[in-house]
Design brief:
Blueprint: H1 3-19, E1 35-41, E2 46-49, H2 51-57, H3 69-77, H4 84-96, E3 102-107, E4 115-124, E5 130-139, H5 141-201, H6 205-232, E6 241-244, H7 245-267, E7 271-277, E8 281-284, H8 286-302, E9 308-316, E10 320-327, H9 334-339, H10 356-366, E11 370-375, E12 381-388, E13 412-416, H11 420-432, E14 436-440, H12 443-452, E15 457-461, H13 469-479, E16 485-489, H14 497-500, E17 507-510, H15 515-531
Parallel strand pairs: 7-9, 13-14, 13-15, 15-16, 16-17
Antiparallel strand pairs: 1-2, 1-5, 3-4, 4-5, 6-8, 9-10, 10-12, 11-12
Helix pairs in contact: 5-6, 5-11, 6-10, 7-8, 8-10, 12-13
Bound molecules: adenosine-5'-diphosphate and magnesium ion.
Length: about 525
């Protein structure tokens, strides 16, 4: 067979391949912009090539016809590829295995990041004798770029889907939890009120100790319920102001120092905490961010039963300010990591509530921020909290906590609650503070009493069958606009923003109510009248 015949066959083959979109053993890579051909005979001589090959490989191959393929590889071709040795040895392998097909992608050396696809196959004559080899080189750089873009888009889609599933799952759990929380708050209000009333009169040490233990348990339960509520809140009611995460982080670390110092000293290991802060101005509600950081730091401490170190850093990027807590603790498996924000998910048995991270998630989400958790089993964890950046704003001072005020004002108060036991305990608590109290079991009954008598203050439950607390408040204000109305709710502080806006109520108090809170609310309400 003449050389011309061989080239003819090669060209036909190439033509067939290009013409057919369904070539059985070879398809031209989609997105391939240029194809160059090289034909070699059984003596390893180059018998055909084309100008495209020179373009694709960026070398001058004009005068290589008739030359030994191995030599051309050495002199001209191999240096064009990043992995020169691999290219050369694959060419040698093809020389020793003339009937093999090779289909591979090769990275071109140099800064252009190009990728070239090589298809190498034996050529046969009509008698099925191998007469040489054809190699087709295609530039698939563009295809690679498209593939990378597709896989990036797919990854983003998957992340978005995971987030959606996560927030839907949390929303469903949140709804169930909030119903439970409401009932619990009422019940806890009754328990706590009665305990606190008993504590006021009980002198016996043993009985007092028992009552105090019960009071603490009720307060702990109230705290758990509050945290559930915290998690289920969807909108931010508390004011946001510009604050520096650097200051908040330092404050929280300072405040929590005793936590790790006590436990670590007691158990004979040490926990080292390093704080490196850069200015990180964020729009946020300071007490809520403190709560988030406390939860995250507590987890870090608890993840290091034999001691270790915690790094707290703050900083900011274009849109976000962030605070990062990295620990050298036990880390998390992927499974634990994927459930970290689920309410009540804990790996700490009875020691854990499983609410720390879900509360943190709820708070940060309401702030329009996000929490990222990066962890590996045995290799510590990094929790990063991102918050919307506050730009060009003066940082507000952290507000001073409001001091409780004791008052010796005596008032006449109307309590409106359909929950008999709760109303009774509230009446007793208010009486205990020295006030004269009347009770109404429903809205209409309250209005009747209010029209007939003079009251300095009204406490009304929010959810009542005939008339809601809002309606009661509106009616009261209609009759006597100066009378302060305090709304009591089992829903924590979660109230409809629209209703709160331009609200008819003067204060909102969430159940369960502590005696101290009750007395300071009364003082404040009466103080407001005095100011008028
Ligand atoms: N820094 C951390 N290192 C290791 N595990 C952690 C860390 N933070 C959270 N976790 C895991 O996430 C779970 C849920 O945390 P959290 O919601 O705070 O509840 P709790 O601390 O009460 O268990 C923990 O039980 C623990 O398994
Ligand atoms: Mg925790």
């Amino acid at each position: 067979m003449s050389l011309d015949d061989t080239i003819q066959i090669a060209n036909t083959l190439i033509h067939d391949i290009e013409a057919s979109s369904e070539a059985p053993s070879f398809q031209l890579p989609p997105g391939a912009s240029l194809r160059g051909v090289l034909v070699i005979d059984t003596d390893q001589r180059i018998i055909s090539t084309d100008a495209n090959l020179s373009k694709i490989l960026g070398v001058d191959l004009e005068n290589i016809l008739g030359l030994d393929h191995g030599q051309v590889v050495k002199d001209h071709l191999k240096h064009r590829f990043k992995d020169t040795d691999a290219y050369e040895s694959s060419c040698n392998w093809l020389k020793d295995h003339p009937e093999e097909v090779l289909d591979d992608a090769l990275e071109v050396s140099g800064p252009e990041n190009r990728v070239v696809h090589r298809y190498s196959a034996p050529l046969y004559n009509a008698d099925r004798n191998c007469i040489g080899r054809v190699e087709i080189y295609s530039d698939i750089t563009r295809r690679r770029e498209l593939e990378a873009a597709v896989s990036q888009a797919y990854k983003e889609l998957r992340e978005a889907q995971e987030q959606l599933v996560q927030s839907e799952k949390l929303r469903a759990i949140g709804e169930i939890a909030s119903g439970v929380a409401h009932d619990f708050n009422n019940t806890l209000g009754i328990i706590l009120g009665n305990i606190q009333l008993l504590l006021r009169v009980q002198k016996d040490d043993f009985a007092r100790a028992k009552l105090e233990a019960a009071e603490k348990a009720a307060l702990d339960a109230a705290e758990t319920v509050r945290r559930i509520r915290e998690f289920t809140k969807t909108t931010l009611q508390e004011p946001k102001s510009a604050l520096d995460l650097a200051c908040v982080a330092s404050e929280v670390v300072e405040m929590m120092k005793p936590t790790w110092e006590n436990t670590s000293h007691a158990r004979g290991y040490s926990i080292e905490v390093n704080v490196e802060t850069d200015h990180a101005p964020a729009m946020a509600n300071a007490p809520e961010i403190r709560e988030v950081l406390t939860n995250v730091l507590l987890n870090a401490v608890q993840s290091m039963p034999d001691g270790g170190s915690i790094n707290v850093r703050t900083g900011c990027s274009d849109d976000f300010s962030w605070v990062r807590v990295a620990d050298t603790g036990v880390g998390m498996s992927d499974d634990v990591c994927s459930r970290i924000f689920d309410p009540f998910f804990t790996t700490k048995g009875v020691e854990g509530t499983g609410l720390g991270m879900s509360v943190a998630y709820g708070i940060i989400k309401r702030h329009g921020g996000k929490i990222a958790v990066d962890s590996e089993l045995g290799n510590g964890s990094i929790v990063t909290i991102y918050l919307p950046k506050a730009d060009g704003l003066e940082l507000a001072d952290t507000p001073e906590p409001v001091r409780e005020q004791e008052s010796d004002l005596r008032a006449k108060i109307l309590v409106v609650d359909d929950e008999e036991m709760f109303a009774d305990v509230l009446v007793e608590m208010l009486s205990e503070c020295g006030h004269a109290v009347c009770v109404a079991r429903s809205g209409p009954e309250a209005l009747e009493q209010f029209r007939e008598d003079q009251f300095d203050l009204v406490f009304t439950d929010l959810g009542m069958p005939e008339m809601s607390g809002w309606q009661v408040a509106r009616e009261i204000k209609g009759i006597q606009p100066e009378t302060p109305v305090v709304l009591l709710t089992g829903w924590g502080t979660v109230l409809d923003e629209n209703e709160l806006e331009g609200s008819v109520v003067d204060m909102v108090l969430s159940k369960p109510v502590r005696l101290e809170d009750l007395s300071s609310v009364v003082s404040e309400a009466l103080g407001r009248i005095a100011e008028r």
